[in-house]
Write a structure and sequence with these properties.
The radius of gyration is 19 Å and the shape is globular. The chain has about 200 residues and is mainly alpha-helical.
Length: about 200
């Protein structure tokens, strides 16, 4: 029995969303196609109706995960974004968390297509941070370098915190120190603009 275009699109979206979550939880190599399709509620053979290879799905799922991160923080003040991003809830919620924090090391070992998708997603995150900094904490100068620094610091803090045992005081200390430093950097930008420094 043939499925409708709408059902095929729905299945495709379900596979990508499921893969995006599973890859963030366990990495690209930690999830097989059969398990992925079972988790999506579809047959293993149906995978190839949507994708030529797992690598093609990895690129799609990566784009999906990075877009989710962008949407999750859209509209928030940049200081609020840092509070939410550098929180224990985000650290512990790998499958729903930022794809950059979950998959950067894996992406470095992927084909150029996946790296390009990853780079575009990271650039979108940088631009969103830059716009948030400029909108809420203007200084008259480009905030791109500061946005890159803040993103790299925040992603790094999540990665390092996740590498620590759950009950390790260092796991929280990494998040707390990074959150405070990012807040200070953003607020200092405002003080400079207002001539208070």
């Amino acid at each position: 029995m043939r499925i409708t275009k709408e059902k095929k699109q729905e299945n495709y979206e379900r596979i990508v969303a499921t893969a995006s979550e599973l890859f963030r939880e366990r990495g690209f190599d930690g999830v097989g196609v059969a398990e992925l399709m079972e988790r999506a509620g579809l047959t293993h053979g149906g995978f190839y109706n949507h994708f030529r290879s797992k690598e093609e799905l990895i690129a799609e799922a990566t784009e999906n995960g990075l877009s989710e991160t962008l949407k999750r923080y859209a509209g928030h003040d940049v200081l609020a974004v840092m509070e939410l991003y550098l929180a224990r809830e985000h650290r512990d919620g790998r499958g729903q968390g930022c794809a950059a924090a979950a998959l950067s090391c894996d992406a470095a070992r992927q084909p150029e297509e996946t790296k390009a998708v990853f780079a575009a997603g990271i650039d979108n995150l940088v631009r969103a941070l830059e716009q948030g900094i400029a909108r809420n904490h203007p200084s008259g100068t480009s905030g791109r370098a500061q946005a890159i620094t803040i993103l790299a610091q925040a992603v790094g803090a999540i990665v390092l915190s996740r590498a620590c045992p759950d009950d390790s005081p260092l796991a929280d200390e990494l998040l707390d120190a990074c959150r405070a430093d990012c807040r200070d950097a953003i607020e200092n930008r405002t003080r400079v603009q207002e001539g208070r420094v």
